[in-house]
Structure formats: C-alpha cells, structure tokens
Amino acid sequence: MLPISHFLYSAVIISKDPASIELTVDSIGLPAVVTDCLHADWRRCGSGVFTWSVFKLYRASLYAPDYFDPAKPFALDLLYLRTIQATQIVETTMSEIERLRPSDSLWLSAWSVELLKILPDVKLSDRLIGLFLPLQGVKFFSARAPLGDVMSPEFASAFAAIWLDPQTRSQTLRAALLGLEQE
Q1: What are the Chalcone isomerase domain coordinates in residue numbering (predicted)?
Q2: Which residue, 10, 125, 143, 149, is the most exposed by fewest CB within 10 angstroms?
Q3: Structural domain boundaries enclosing 168
Q4: Is the pTM of this model over 0.85?
Q5: Is residue 128 part of a domain?
Q6: SS3 content of the chain, % helix, strand, coil (to 5)
Q7: Does residue 18 sit within a domain?
Q8: Which tens digit of pLDDT belongs to each residue from 139-154?
C-alpha cells in the first residue's frame, strides 16, 4: 500500500498552480527517500520563497531533528516554481560560494564538476533536497530518489551559507528559514 504522502505529492504534480504546490509540499514534509537515509524526528524550522526581481524561483524549507543546529544534520528542501537548467543552478551556486566564502575558491572547480554530475534541470514542482551532514558533506535527493553527494565538510559549510549565512543575498528568506520572523 502506498503512503498518503505519495498521493498528496501526486496531486501536487497534477496542479500547475505554484501557490497550491507551495502549500501542499509544506504539509507533506520531507520525502521518505530522505528520512529513510537518516532516521530522526524531522520538523520544519521555517520556510520562505526566494525571489529574484519579480520572479518567484523556489520555496525553501529548512528541516532539522528537534531544532536547527548547524553542527547537527539538517535538510534544505527547494520546491522549484519555474524551469531552471542545471548549469544555471551550478553557476549561481559557485558564484554565491565564491562571494560568501572566498577562502574556499580553491575547490570551486571540483565542486562545480561534481554538482553538474548530480543536479538535474528542474521545472515547476520539482524538488531538490540537500541533506547536510556536518563534518561530512551533503547528500542530494529529488522527491523520489537519491541523486548523489559531495562529501566535503568545506562544501557543506559553503553550500549552506548560500541560505543561512548572515551575508546571504536574501535576508528575508534566511529569517523565514530560521523561524526568526513570520512570512
């Protein structure tokens, strides 16, 4: 028998309305493919929408067992609200890591190659989830399957900084993810 989350997620895929997709995914939580990887009582710490200019790009949700602590495992779930090519995701990721963590620039080329092998092009309602394992790296998932991992503690820290560093480009999203303010 399929779990109820399968049917809820299927309903999301049928609907192409970003607002209904955002609400449904928030009510589902992390997919089993992620929670089966690291058994814990995952709870959503916060969520918000990342916009660039007038475009809503994705809804981000931060999950952690019990409460968010960057020294413990946590997950960042991105629900895409438009089509974006993997190359654009990786280029933007590397640009932000270089801006936030210039000392990590020695690894940018290697990380870029690894991410290009892992990350797919995304379209409306696709989910990419990063499971951050401090002092280890990041495991990547779609809503249905593991995609690959970058097992580097430096990468995990630099990648998380894109959303959680005090110097992130979206202070509003950071605050929403950390539960510091209501959306």
Answers
A1: 46-179
A2: 10
A3: 4-177
A4: no
A5: yes
A6: 40, 25, 30
A7: yes
A8: 999 999 999 999 999 9
